[in-house]
UniProtKB/TrEMBL annotation:
Family: Belongs to the NAD(P)-dependent epimerase/dehydratase family.
Coiled coil (UniProt feature): none
Residues covered by the NAD-dependent epimerase/dehydratase domain: 3-214
Originating organism: Streptomyces liliifuscus
Gene3D superfamilies with a match to the protein in the record: NAD(P)-binding Rossmann-like Domain (3.40.50.720)
Name of the protein in question: NAD-dependent epimerase/dehydratase family protein
Amino acid sequence: MRILVTGAAGFIGGHLVTALETRGHSVVGIDRRHGTSTAEIDRLRRAIGANEPELIVHLGASCSTQFSLANPAQDFHDNALGTFNVAEAARLAGGIPVLFTSSVKVHPGEDGLIAPLGQSKAVGEQYLRLYGDLYSLPHVILRPSTVYGPGQNGTSESGWVTWFLRAFWNRQQITIHGDGTQSRDILYIDDFTALLTDIVENFDAYQGRTYEVGGGPGNELSLLDLLHAWETDTGHRPDVLHDERLPGDLQRVVTDNTGISAVRGWKPTVPWIDGVRSTLDWIGDQW
């Protein structure tokens, strides 16, 4: 199968390209870091025309809440416009199916607000549904909770699990926005990649729906839980600074995977403690 992956140079994209190629698929990856941004529709259409994909996996995006708050125009450009362009290019190419990774941040936070990142992702979702209704464009939308694991850079702005682990390793100060009790059902990259691969290979079974996806109740982890786990394992107390909570921040995300599991039985398999330790081992191997 010929598949085009946007954001292929990113954390999830890199894992997915490897998994698809291992299973014998022909994969073309595009990424703004390599000169092809989904926000530039002419380049996107040329890439589609040259490679004639049978399916598009749209992962390319800006993923930082903090960046979106500081630069909402760029966030809109990267996410809302980028996803609109994917839908339009897929339509013009004859209705290529699109698998879109949105975000759980489309939901309002504890303060009732949605950060620009969540809004731009929601706009992308709305356009895909509109194109499904008006032009019969096949699509699947995923709203993942926190995805983490080896290969993720992790910074103070995004990828908090890996950022915390990297900061622990390097004895760097960690800034927590709020009291640290906010939690996510974190999802290990191998589990998420397995789901994406199954959707690619069985698209019709999932088609036309929006799915919440996460690690589930057994993988719920707060920021303070991760700090405590590190301190317990190593005997070192992390250097933590508390700052104001970010607007639109979600207090608790625990995904009900019933909808996605009902399609073909996918479930997360990696417990958070194993995934965190594997990620920490990978960080250690880099040094």
